[in-house]
Design brief:
The structure holds 2 protein chains of 2 kinds.
Chain A (H helix, E strand, L loop, with lengths): L1 E3 H5 L8 H10 L3 E7 L7 E11 L7 E6 L4 E6 L9 E6 L13 E3 L2 E3 L1 E3 L27 H4 L5 E6 L10 H12 L30 E4 L7 E8 L8 H9 L7 H13 L3 E5 L7 E6 L5 E3 L5 E3 L5 E4 L4 E4 L3 E2 L12 E7 L2 H11 L4 H8 L6 H16 L2 E2 L4 E4 L6 E5 L1 H8 L5 H10 L3 E6 L14 E7 L9 H12 L20 H14 L4 E2 L5 E2 L1 H4 L4 H6 L2 E2 L13 E2 L4 H13 L8 E13 L6 E11 L16 H15 L5 E4 L5 E10 L5 E8 L1 H6 L7 E7 H7 L15 E10 L4 H11 L4 E10 L8 E10 L8 H19 L2 E2 L3
Parallel strand pairs in A: 11-14, 26-30
Antiparallel strand pairs in A: 1-10, 2-10, 3-4, 3-6, 4-5, 6-9, 7-8, 12-20, 12-21, 12-22, 13-20, 14-17, 15-16, 17-18, 18-19, 23-25, 24-25, 27-29, 28-30, 30-31, 31-35, 32-33, 33-34, 34-35, 36-38, 36-39, 37-38
Chain B lengths: L1 H17 L3 H12 L4 H9 L4 H40 L18 H14 L4 E2 L5 E3 H4 L24 E3 L5 H9 L4 E10 L10 E11 L4 H16 L5 E8 L2 E10 L16 E10 L1 H6 L8 E8 H9 L6 H4 L2 H4 L3
Parallel strand pairs in B: 1-4
Antiparallel strand pairs in B: 2-3, 4-5, 5-9, 6-7, 7-8, 8-9
Classes of the chains: A alpha+beta, B alpha+beta.
């Protein structure tokens, strides 16, 4: 919200510069977003009077003006046509640097000397558009700085108001905060000198009751409604003091009556509305809920369709305002208006908020009602508005006012235990200090015996508490803790001593998931993978890879956002692979000279809806892709392209690193990987840990990667976590030497090595320590459709040195059974 | 006999000393100590002497043999050393050629910064806690004292999945999950992704926060200041100034925003800090009694503080990044820098 320094000074004495004020307000919780001096560039613009206008001797379209600026007379060439002798106008003197960027110099224009410039509002930066020279009021004093005349010698301060502080959405609210800091006194502007209490300005007679009846049918949403009638006003543009004030705080001047209502809105925070009284049908107002599909055209010229939740002001025939949000165009104040009805009301904040949300119509008024206005401030606002309207638009205020009040708005009493305050803040404040702070805030403080308080369920250790009475404009202060915050705020957060106390000792809990993530990250980065972070949002196109129908058959479906930012981000990702392929695609497009070796991984959640569960499922995965060569390019030798076994090897090492043992691999299928080139990783507990393989070709095409060969993997962190061996027990390092035997066997081409290996293990005695594959060969002299596999068997005993013959016997037994039972023969040497 | 041996020793020594390569040394070894070598011949000759006369020259001959062997070994080692030197003189190893590098990747800068933040608090005895990214209205708002139709809801524009289910807009719901499941003392730090319907150069629809919560008996606002001052000094350096100013969060009271002296201008005022000299980095406060009531804690018995910060914001300040979108493009030329 914007206020100006001078405006604030009408309410409170400020002993500081704008910058100091900004600093102080920030430190009590009113953050200052900006400080902007008004009228920059207008320091050499004064008010002058045109004494005569003659034609320019050498140019038909120009004229030569003689101008009196009090101290001297100037001769100025001008091209505008809206001026006449006697007009008072702004004169930019020699040396002036106008907001438009123009610098004024004494110069000859078509042979005639010009000693300055007559200015338009646009040239002065006062309006975005203007035709002709800015003609000022006739009473403007010659030679005065335009800045002073227009009250522009001022500074605009923009304050960010937190949602709890509706009371600060006004000049008076911010002034009250300044009083809380300085301890000074708040000055209320007096009403128009002629404005009598309950009376009228002019000699006009009559009473408001003869003009209007008001019926509040919904007193919950409209607990208080007040109104006055002002007769015989002259609608006209506002005087310059008023327009410049409104402009400086960002409001557009409209006409004198509407401008006053806006002025009061900014000054007192009370939204007002002025109806054209003559256009109200039947001399009556009813405040009630709208009927379904009732319609109103609001003053922004939009047709609004209302519903039963919305509060409206209606006359005898139709809605004439959406309560607390915006008035209707039918009863709008226009230049033809003579009599007005001025409304000042207190509407329920939730009702206004719902209505504004439903209509998609947020206004200065609704913003303030949502955050709470002072129910006891509405009459003062009404009176001040009526008085100011009489001042700027003439007319007379009719005697009497409507004040329909359905609730007593009594300031609440709250008990504050000073010891509780100190306990929360870590301070050592005494009751006197606390009372003094609260008094400065406008609260009333009394010492009270604890027993006298039974309304607050307060438990206290001291016999006395402070009874704090909260003014009705501070609706946000409703509990003891709210008062404690007020004390802290004004006492100053930076005056509260910092202490180092981390509470009672407690065991720092291990978080296994965090640890697993950490280790996984560490593994992959140490193996050349860069971590990426992608949005969890994805789109339809990227989901086409999935067979949606198959998904549905499995009872699963994708999760859509109800209000996505755009259609590219409308679905929650169901896997991380698409993001990673996007990362490869993006990087491949960059820097064509760079090496095209990419290894990326991401750890993150995937989202899916399972039909049998109400809750949407989140599953965390580590997913990665690799592409290009096995190592960085090196000048001495070239690295081969990576293949299936690079991914597999990385995963085997990962599992080892994570302490996952006895896992196995098996062929699998997945829409993300090419058929026949994908495997599943199975844990000891027969859980699927994840998949890896060669990324599917169509999938690559979707990411403009059709010529690339990319390998990828996705592992479930949850399943990995389950499979980790938690207790590792040490086995003594063997003391006796090993005996190694190599065994090459010929097996059918499509027989998996794992199978052969298991046969051998089952045949060998428990002396077999390890079994490794050192060679796989197909080709001459091996028969077609067969291949040779070389196993290296390591034997060792924990108890003794093995004898060579003993091992040879085991091996011959293996060879014999392989031959006889499995038809697997030894490869001839 | 004795003279013969002495003479042999003399000659052999001279020849060994003169030998200038391994081949010559080997030849000499054969010449004197070989199967038909000169010393061997002499030793063999001993056999012809009567037994009682053999002892004296026998001893001497052995002594000569040991001495010669030693001499040859010393010479051999010397020649080996010379070889190394002369080889090194001939060979040229270009130490400026690039080495054969093992592959190394890096974690994302957001991961790094979040870890830095968490590690500081883990050092203070905090534990990592987590919560779901899909939340209900209750955990994300209501339990945090943000009722429906409250203007505080305007502070965060929310992505909805259904009427009541949403993507969490803050990590604060983790506070509720943890308090529901355990009893004080509580000391947690919760990093994670959060989502708000907002996208421009400084706002991303997905970003990261780190949330902290401590609940115990007798926890004060002074303690909150102390722990955050410690954090700021560890994170941004011991000399950085810090200030606490009042603010509003529905789930804490009193609430504070924490500013540090601008890292760009050191507090003088610049574009980055909008001329204020300060940068906002944290929101914090004492847990509101309403929140305690929601999780059935007695606010008269326990008190606590909570704080939260944006990881991207800290990373942007730390590394001087002005466009938040860079974090999610994952351009290697960006990732490589951290």
């Amino acid at each position: 919200m914007k206020v100006t320094l001078n405006w604030l000074k009408e309410f409170v004495d400020i002993p500081w510069t704008a910058k100091e004020l900004a600093e102080r307000l920030t430190m009590v919780g009113l953050e200052i977003a900006s400080i902007t001096p008004l009228g920059q560039g207008l320091s050499s613009v004064v008010i002058g009077k045109i004494t005569s206008i003659d034609k320019h001797p050498k140019a038909d379209r120009l004229s030569l003006c003689q101008v009196d600026i009090g101290s001297k007379k100037l001769s100025i060439v001008c091209g505008a046509t809206n001026i006449k002798a006697g007009d008072k106008v702004p004169i930019a003197l020699e040396g002036a640097q106008l907001p438009s960027g123009v610098t004024i110099k004494k110069a000859k224009i078509r042979g005639v000397i010009s000693e300055g410039m007559l200015c338009s509002q646009k040239e002065l930066g006062l309006a975005e558009d203007s035709s002709g020279i800015y003609i000022l009021d006739t009473e403007a004093l010659l030679g005065t700085l335009l800045l002073d005349y227009l009250n522009l010698n001022d500074i605009v301060i923009e304050v960010e108001i937190t949602p709890n502080r509706g009371d600060c959405l006004s000049v008076i609210g911010i002034a009250r905060e300044i009083v809380a800091i300085t301890g000074g006194k708040l000055k209320y502007p007096s009403l128009h000198p002629n404005f009598e209490e309950e009376g009228s300005v002019g000699e006009d007679s009559g009473h408001i009751n003869e003009f209007i009846t008001v019926n509040v049918e919904d007193s919950h949403d409209c607990p208080r409604y007040s109104a006055r009638v002002v007769k015989d006003v002259s609608i006209a543009p506002s005087p310059s003091w008023l327009t410049s004030r409104l402009l400086s705080v960002g409001l557009r001047p409209i006409n004198n009556v509407v401008d006053i209502t806006n002025y009061i809105l900014m000054e007192l925070g009370q939204p007002l509305h002025a109806f054209d009284y003559s256009l109200i049908k039947g001399q009556q107002l009813i405040i009630r809920k709208a009927k379904k599909d009732e319609k109103i055209i609001t003053i922004d010229k939009n047709k609004r369709i209302l519903d039963e939740q919305m509060l409206v002001i209606v006359d005898k025939e139709r809605p004439i305002a959406v309560a607390g949000v915006m008035g209707g165009i039918d009863t709008e104040v226009t230049e033809n208006t003579r009599n007005i009805l001025l409304e000042s009301a207190f509407f329920d904040s939730i009702s206004v908020r719902r209505t504004a949300k439903r209509l998609g119509l947020a206004t200065e008024a609704s913003y303030r009602f949502e955050r709470g206005v002072d129910p006891n401030g509405i009459i003062y606002a009404l009176e001040r508005a009526a008085s100011l309207i009489n001042m700027v638009a003439g007319g007379s205020t009719v005697k009497g006012l409507i004040d329909k009040s359905y609730k007593k708005f009594i300031p609440v009493d709250i008990a504050l235990r000073v010891e509780r305050c100190n306990k929360i803040l870590g301070t050592d404040l005494d009751a006197a200090t606390v009372s003094s702070i609260l008094t400065k805030l406008g609260f009333t403080v009394n010492k009270y015996p604890l027993q006298a308080f039974n309304f607050n369920e307060v438990q206290g250790t001291k016999p006395f508490v402070l009874k704090v009475t909260i003014p009705t404009y501070r609706g946000d202060v409703a509990r003891e803790i709210d008062i404690i915050e007020e004390v802290a705020r004004i006492y100053g957060y930076n005056n509260i001593k910092s202490t180092q106390n981390c509470g009672q000792s407690s065991v720092c809990l291990e978080n296994f998931n965090a640890e697993l993530r950490e280790r996984t990250r560490s593994f992959f980065t140490n193996h050349g993978f860069y971590e990426t972070i992608n949005f969890v949002f994805t789109n339809k196109r990227h989901c086409d890879i999935l067979n949606i129908q198959e998904l549905q058959e499995k009872g699963r479906s994708l999760i859509y956002l109800k209000n996505p930012l755009n259609e590219k981000q409308e679905i929650l990702r169901y896997n991380l692979m698409t993001g990673l392929l996007e990362n490869v695609s993006l990087n491949l497009g960059k820097d064509s000279w760079s090496k095209k070796n990419f290894r990326f991984f991401e750890i993150g959640k995937t989202f899916i809806k399972k039909d049998d569960r109400e809750k949407l499922q989140e599953e965390e995965y580590v997913t990665g892709v690799m592409m290009g060569k096995r190592g960085e390019d090196f000048w001495q030798e070239k690295n081969p392209q990576i293949d299936f076994y690079d991914v597999k090897g990385n995963l085997e090492k990962l599992l080892d690193f994570l302490k996952i043992k006895e896992y196995t691999f098996r062929k699998s299928s997945s829409p993300f990987f090419n058929k026949g080139r994908v495997a599943e990783l199975i844990s000891k507990e027969k859980l699927s840990l994840g998949l890896f393989g060669e990324v599917e070709s169509q999938c690559l095409k979707d990411f403009d990667l059709e010529d690339q060969q990319i390998f990828g993997f996705c592992l479930s962190l949850e399943q990995l976590q389950i499979s980790i061996v938690k207790d590792i027990s040490f086995k003594p390092i063997p003391k006796f030497p090993v005996v190694v035997r190599d065994l090459a066997v010929i097996v059918p081409q499509d027989m998996e090595v794992e199978l052969v290996k298991r046969i051998i293990i089952s045949l060998a005695s428990d002396l077999l320590r390890t079994i490794d594959i050192f060679d796989v060969y197909a080709g001459v002299p091996i028969l077609e459709e067969y291949r040779s596999i070389g196993f290296s068997l390591v034997f060792q005993s924990e108890k003794r040195t093995l004898v060579s013959e003993e091992v040879d016997n085991i091996c011959s037994k293996i060879v014999e059974i392989l031959k006889n039972k499995y038809n697997i023969s030894l490869r001839e040497a | 006999m004795e003279n013969k041996l002495k003479q042999l020793l003399e000659e052999a020594r001279k020849e060994i000393d003169l030998a200038n390569n391994h081949k010559r040394l080997t030849d000499l070894k054969i010449k004197y100590l070989g199967r038909n070598g000169e010393l061997t011949q002499i030793l063999r000759g001993l056999g012809q002497l009567p037994v009682e006369q053999r002892a004296e020259p026998g001893k001497l001959a052995n002594k000569v043999k040991v001495e010669l062997e030693g001499h040859i070994n010393v010479k051999s080692e010397m020649l080996a050393k010379l070889d190394v030197i002369s080889k090194a003189k001939k060979e040229f190893l270009d130490v400026t050629l690039p080495g054969r590098k093992s592959l190394l990747g890096k974690t994302h800068p957001i991961t790094q910064v979040a870890k830095d933040v968490c590690d500081i608090f883990i050092g203070l005895g905090f534990s990592i806690a987590e919560g779901p990214e899909i939340e209900t209205d209750y955990y994300n708002f209501e339990a945090l004292n943000i009722p429906k139709d409250h203007p505080a809801r305007d502070m965060q524009d929310t992505f909805y999945l259904s009427e009541d289910v949403l993507l969490r807009t803050q990590t604060s719901p983790v506070q509720i999950h943890v308090m529901e499941k355990s009893t004080p003392p509580i000391r947690i730090i919760a990093p994670g992704k959060v989502f708000r319907r907002d996208s421009d150069i400084t706002h991303s629809p997905m970003f990261h926060q780190v949330e902290g919560l401590l609940v115990d008996e007798k926890v004060t606002f002074g303690d909150l200041k102390g722990v955050l001052e410690f954090f700021v000094k560890r994170m941004f350096g011991p000399d950085v100034s810090i200030r606490f100013r009042p603010s509003f969060f529905p789930f804490t009271e009193p609430s504070a925003e924490v500013d540090i002296a601008c890292v760009m201008c050191r507090g003088k005022g610049c574009r980055v800090c909008s001329e204020t000299g300060w940068l906002e980095i944290l929101g914090a406060g004492m847990v509101d009694p309403e929140v305690f009531k929601m999780v059935k804690y007695d606010p008269e018995k326990v008190s606590g503080y909570a704080f939260g910060m944006g990881v991207e914001r800290i990373a942007m300040l730390k590394y001087g990044i002005s466009d938040i979108r860079l974090f999610y493009e994952n351009d290697l030329r960006f990732l490589e820098q951290f």
